[in-house]
Amino acid sequence: MANALLQAEEHVLSTLENDGTRRWLYPRLSAGPYWHARRIVGFLLIALFVALPHLQMRGKPMILLDITRREFTFFGFTFLPTDTLLLALFMICVFLAIFLLTALFGRVWCGWACPQTVYLEFVYRPIERLLMGTRGKGGVPSKAVPGWRRVVLYATYLVLSMLLAHTFLAYFVGVEALSRWVRQSPFEHPAPFLVMALTTGLMMFDFSFFREQLCLIACPYGRFQSVLLDRKSLIVAYDRNRGEPRGKLQKNLPIVDAPTGDCVDCGLCVKTCPTGIDIRNGLQMECIHCTQCMDACDAVMKRVQRPPGLIRYSSQDAIAGKPQRYLRPRVIIYPVLLTILLGIFVYNLSMKKSFDVTLLRNYGSPYTVGIDGQIENSLRIKLVNRLETPDEFEIRFLHPGNVMLDRDTAIVLAGRETRTEPILVTVPREEFTFGRLAAEIEIRSRSGDRRVVTCQLLGP
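Above: the chain's sequence. Below: its structure in token form.
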């Protein structure tokens, strides 16, 4: 006897049919006020994304993530591998800022600024609607669409994905290197070409096939919202108190005498949702707060002469009729932590010099006794020239003053060069107390910066 398959009563996932096949989403276009505002923001973000690699600040690119050289430039300041603390503070500040924005405004990033949403909703889907015959309205395209239109559609997707891949690559190699590679044969730079081809393929796969599943399956942000949001956070919410029970509008019947709520059960909020959910089921992980359901519902409310805002920006407590408190622990703790960490970050950034120095003890015996009875310590000094131009460094002891060094010439480093040099320190025996001597070493650069490093010299 063949085993009968159990059919699900409803969609397990919004992109999965009851029989387990892919449910392709073709959201209906609801061009309301929020959609127009999001489109303006989206176009501005696209322009910013394209322009940032070309802009410079303090003679450097605004953003350049040079992974091969391990140099990361943000707004004119370059972080080197020695800037682990600064990079860690910067990343923590970014995450705290996201936590704060989410606690206050919900998933505003996902619906308004995420590149996945911006490019899919305002670049790729408009092209699809134009070529599939659903321009200005969206929805499922007709099965009678000629095959050549689909060929043109995917060819256009490929060109767009290639342009995006080149722009994306410019953030990692710089505009000058990218423009030089574009004019050369791929055989002259095979590795960057393969990276560009792979990035193009991934973008093509994402925007033409994977689409909303990136938000539902791959992106962890939706799963984090259970801890990032609380009942007072701003969300896109359906007012059940006003909308239920649902029912079709009855003509010539006053609103106060209507046996149903304001929801006329037209289903437009579901048809227009880019992730295929029903917002009337409450807060859901799949909701990206794109406000398409708000625009669709407000248009219906206007036609049936009922107040807008059945689906609106609100909070779970506000919808439930509870008092709304804007000041709560997380919106106080996050800004305090963010202010403290930003202060530490700015302080450490302001203390950065044109070079870094690390003093290390050499291998072998901690000290030796010379022929003349003086104590010799073998050390290593590691210098990092942060400038892009050559620089010279002079080393001298500040304390004690009767220390001799085996080096009387400056150390010359090329731009961005890191070098470790041995130095031999000779100190009179009587300077040591219980075998130790606190010393201060000054390193001066020709560029004008100065650092003082303290160390412990060892003796008998």
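The mean pLDDT is 88.
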